[in-house]
Amino acid sequence: MLGPVNYTIWFGVFLVELFSLLCLLRKGALSKHFTLVLYLCACLATDIGGYSIIKTSGYNSNAYFYFYFYSQSLLTICLFFVLMSLYSQVFSEMGVGKHIRAGAMLLLAATAGISLHMVAASADRFVTLFVTELGQNLYFVAVLLTYLLWGAMAKLRENRVRLLQLVLSMGVYVSLSAGSYAMVNLYPNHEFWRYYFPITEMCLPVSWAYAFMKVSDDARMGTARLLAPTR
Amino acid sequence: MIAEIVFAISFLTLAQFFVSYCRSLIAKSRGYELSEQAREISGVAANTARGDQFKRLLTLIALCPGPGGDANRIRAVSTYFNLLGFGQALLSRAIPSAARWIDAERGGCAYVAAVVLDRRIAYRRTVLLQQLARN
Question: Tell me, what DSSP letter sits at residue A43?
Fold first, then answer.
């Protein structure tokens, strides 16, 4: 059964995601940052779907159980698309967008295959185990890809502030999520996760809203200023 | 075993991304030259500030109302400053070089606060001059 704290957190997350979506649309991000808009729409649809299932079938029902785990997997895959669009923007001048998309799809399929194999090899074949394993692995691959992208941006002397902030906030979120999923694998069935995960979901919408509202599209800054020690 | 490795690597990358993200939020202020008056009031040197000046600067900022719009930046810098303080408390004895780095970062936060104060002083001065011109 969900308490008032859970509903408050849920409503807070919903409002933050909606606000972020409106900020992106207001700043005309639909065409240039379509995957960001897609991810936020998917988050909102998941929130609404989850709420209606809790209301009709209950929090402890099988329907919500399966909905939650499958929707989380879909959101992770959407996040992968966001990451690929960031790659495309960083490497836009090199014209390697097609190769990046193909590589990302292969990586996504390979991660899902490896996760399935790991769960199939274990004694208890639960779908939730597969989804937790897939979540941890996908987020971890996303961590490595984001780190690689950040390294490439530093090397290419990328100076678009908004793009830098989008990549860095993505790095913060995927690192946090990968670490959290790893902790879930180590300490499952803990009441704490019920409050923790919805709160962490606010990271990306908040940082995206900030990047689009406060940072202009033509703002520039060297990556060296973010990497070099403070004077 | 895999979960432990994933957790360890994720924690390290999280720390690095978080520091870089916070720096990207406050980097704008770092290239700013403080005015003579702001330096005198805040006690901050031309290009550097110390971490222990941060709290005093926040008090001065609270005393000097501004045009608005910088509250979020102050909040972000304060959060980063407090997290660095937490890191310093954890690491200062174990890794002295990390403590030095954290101290430099906290000094950077204090410099950002000094820049905010400088802008507020300039704003107040402009408002005062406009009022005097009207009278």
Answer: H
Give the best residue of A137, A138, A147, A168 to mutate against chain B (max B CB count within 10 A).
Answer: A168
pLDDT (tens digit, 9 = 90+) per residue, A159-210?
A: 888 999 999 999 999 999 989 888 888 887 777 887 888 888 888 999 999 8
Residue labelled with tokens 């000046």:
B53
Smallest Cα distance from B30 to chain A, Å: 9
Give me the residue spans of the domains in chain B.
2-134
Q: Which residues 57-96 of B have a C-beta within 8 angstroms of A?
A: 72
Contacts of A227 in chain B (CB under 8 A): 20
Q: Which residues have a Cβ under 8 Å from the Cβ of A194 and sit 6 or more positions away?
A: A6
Taking the CB of residue B83, how many other CB atoms lie within 10 A of it?
15
Residue-wise over A167-189: b if at least 16 C-beta within 10 A, else e? bbbbbbbbbbbbbbbbbbbeeee
Q: Does A228 touch chain B (CB under 8 A)?
A: no
Q: Do B72 and A176 touch (CB under 8 A)?
A: no
Fold of A4-222: Rhopdopsin 7-helix transmembrane proteins (1.20.1070)
ipTM > 0.90? Answer: no
What phi and psi values does residue A220 have, to the nearest 5 degrees?
Answer: -125, 145
B117 close to B61: Cβ distance less than 8 angstroms: yes
What one-letter code names the amino acid at A229? P
Structure tokens at B47: 């290009």
Q: What is the pTM of this model?
A: 0.83
- CB contact (8 A) between residue A185 and residue B27: no
Contact B6 A171 (CB under 8 A): no
| C-alpha–C-alpha distance, residues A86 and A182, integer Å | 25
Annotated domain spans of chain A: 4-222
| Helix A62-90 with A127-155: angle, nearest 10 deg | 20
